[in-house]
C-alpha cells in the first residue's frame, strides 16, 4: 500500500534531508516509532501552527516575523526535534532553530545528528521534572543560554501536559522574559472547563505513571498566561489530542 512520503513501515531513515531519530528515543504516540507516522505527525504539527499564525496575521497585533522559514525558533521540550523534522519536510527550514530539553540523551542525539545540518543548536537544561528529569537540580529560571534569547517563535508542544503548577508558572514567566517583544508562543496543554484547577490523569486511571497526562482548569491556566504577561492570539481545541494556544507578549 502506498504510504506517506513512501517510507513504508521501516524506521531510522531520513526525512526532508535530516536524519530521523532512533525509534527508542521517540515519545508521543507509540505509532511514531514508524517513520511514516512520525513524519506525518510532524507535518501535521507544522500545518496546525501555520493555520494559527494565519489567523493571527488578521489581528491588529504586529508580529516580528512572517513565515516560519524567516524565524528564529526556540523549541522548549524539543525531544527528538520532531518540529524541525516537520519544517524540513515542508521545505521551511528556519533561519535559526534552538532545541532545549531536560533529557540529556535526546539533546545528545540532536547535537550529534542535526547540529551540522543548518543553523541548529541544542541545549540541555538540568531542570527538575518529576516525569522526565526527577533528579534535576534547577528551575527553568536563567537556564536558557542568552545566545538563544529573543526568539521570534517559541514552540512548547506537549510539555505543560507533564508539569505541576509551579513549573508551568515558572516556564511561562521565563519564556516571557526571553522572547522577542513581537514574538509568538505556540503551546499545547490539556485544559477543561468545570474541572479541578490541576489534575494528573483526569481520566482517573492513575497507575503510578507520574505526570503522564496533566489537565488544568481552562480559566486557571488562562490566568497564568495573563499573569506571565501574555495575551491569547489563538486557541484550537484539538491538535494531536491536546488544546493549543498561540500567545503574544503584552
Ligand atoms: C511528550 S515530549 C514532547 C516532545 C516534543 N515537543 C514533541 O512534540 O515531539 C515532552 C518533552 O518535554 C521535555 N521537558 C519536560 N519538562 C521540561 C522543561 N521544564 N524544560 C524543557 N524540556 C522539558 C521532556 O524531556 C520531553 O522531551
Automatic annotation (TrEMBL):
Residue span(s) of domain Methyltransferase: 72-203
GO molecular function: methyltransferase activity
Keywords in alphabetical order: Methyltransferase, Transferase
UniProt cross-references to InterPro entries, sorted A to Z: Methyltranfer_dom, SAM-dependent_MTases_sf
GO biological process, one term: methylation
SUPFAM superfamilies (UniProt xref): S-adenosyl-L-methionine-dependent methyltransferases (SSF53335)
PANTHER family hit by this protein: TRANS-ACONITATE 2-METHYLTRANSFERASE-RELATED
Protein name: Methyltransferase domain protein
Amino acid at each position: 500500500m502506498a504510504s506517506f512520503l513512501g517510507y513504508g513501515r521501516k524506521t531510522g531513515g531520513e526525512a526532508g534531508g535530516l536524519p530521523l531519530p532512533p525509534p527508542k528515543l521517540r515519545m508521543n504516540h507509540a505509532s511514531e516509532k514508524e517513520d511514516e507516522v512520525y513524519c506525518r505527525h510532524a507535518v501535521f504539527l507544522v500545518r496546525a501552527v501555520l493555520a494559527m499564525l494565519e489567523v493571527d496575521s488578521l489581528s491588529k497585533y504586529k508580529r516580528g516575523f512572517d513565515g516560519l522559514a524567516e524565524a528564529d525558533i526556540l523549541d522548549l521540550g524539543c525531544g527528538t526535534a520532531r518540529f524541525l523534522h516537520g519544517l524540513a519536510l515542508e521545505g521551511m527550514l528556519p533561519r535559526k532553530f534552538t532545541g532545549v530539553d531536560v533529557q540529556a540523551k535526546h539533546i545528545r542525539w540532536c547535537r550529534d545528528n542535526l547540529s551540522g545540518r543548518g543553523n541548529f543548536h541544542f541545549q540541555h537544561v538540568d531542570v527538575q521534572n518529576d516525569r522526565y528529569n526527577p533528579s534535576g537540580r534547577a528551575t527553568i529560571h536563567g537556564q536558557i543560554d542568552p545566545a538563544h534569547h529573543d526568539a521570534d517563535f517559541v514552540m512548547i508542544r506537549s510539555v505543560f501536559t507533564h508539569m505541576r503548577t509551579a513549573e508551568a508558572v515558572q516556564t511561562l514567566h521565563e519564556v516571557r522574559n526571553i522572547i522577542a517583544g513581537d514574538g509568538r508562543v505556540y503551546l499545547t496543554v490539556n485544559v477543561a472547563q468545570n474541572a479541578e484547577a490541576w489534575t494528573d490523569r483526569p481520566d482517573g486511571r492513575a497507575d503510578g505513571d507520574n505526570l503522564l497526562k496533566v489537565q488544568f482548569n481552562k480559566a486557571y491556566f488562562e490566568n497564568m498566561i495573563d499573569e506571565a504577561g501574555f495575551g491569547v492570539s489563538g486557541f484550537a481545541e484539538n491538535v494531536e489530542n491536546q488544546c493549543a494556544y498561540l500567545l503574544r507578549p503584552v
